[in-house]
Specification:
The protein is an alpha/beta fold and 147 residues long. The chain is 35% helix and 20% strand. It has six helices and eight strands, in the order E-H-E-H-E-H-E-H-E-H-E-H-E-E. The strands form two sheets. The protein has a five-stranded parallel sheet with strand order 3-2-1-4-5, with helices on both faces. A three-stranded antiparallel sheet has the order 6-8-7, covered by helices on one side. The radius of gyration is 16 Å and the shape is globular.
């Protein structure tokens, strides 16, 4: 597990998993900011809950200063790692991890992570079913199968 209390953490990409990651990080005591290229209007459903949780929101693009002022950056699966801001902070030596790596630091037991462009949900469900039918205690969440 990581000690996130009072750490400045940026979540890049605010899809369903990015929203969940931001809320989880906040529950761990992190000072969380989210950054998304979509406009505030496009994020109108997500923004109120984020602000109520004490999470800062940057919309309409990524600001390099927002990225540089962080202790940790968590990149959502839909955000390319060659995004200019991500590439630049990696070059500066800031810690950049994906959501799956974040999750793996808190999960106990064995983890099967499913990646790829298409079919992740179906494959994850199938792997979970196979393990469960084989008598292996299994939990399925997103694109992770844990036992």
């Amino acid at each position: 597990m990581m000690d996130l209390k009072s750490k400045r953490v940026l979540v890049v990409g605010l899809g369903k998993s990015g929203l969940s990651a931001a809320m989880f990080l906040r529950s761990q005591g992190a000072r969380v900011t989210v950054s998304d290229t979509r406009s505030a209007v496009a994020l109108a459903k997500e923004i109120p809950a984020l602000l109520e949780a004490g999470i800062m929101v940057e919309s309409g693009g990524h600001g390099l200063l927002t990225f540089r002022r962080q202790d940790l950056i968590v990149v959502s699966p839909g955000v390319p790692m060659d995004t200019p801001e991500v590439k630049q902070v990696v070059a500066f030596g800031l810690t950049v991890i994906g959501e799956l790596e974040l999750a793996s630091r808190y999960l106990q037991g064995q983890v099967v992570a499913i990646t790829g462009s298409n079919g992740k949900t179906t494959t994850t469900t199938l792997v979970g079913k196979i393990l469960s039918d084989a008598g292996v205690p299994t939990q399925v969440g997103g694109t992770l199968v844990c036992r």
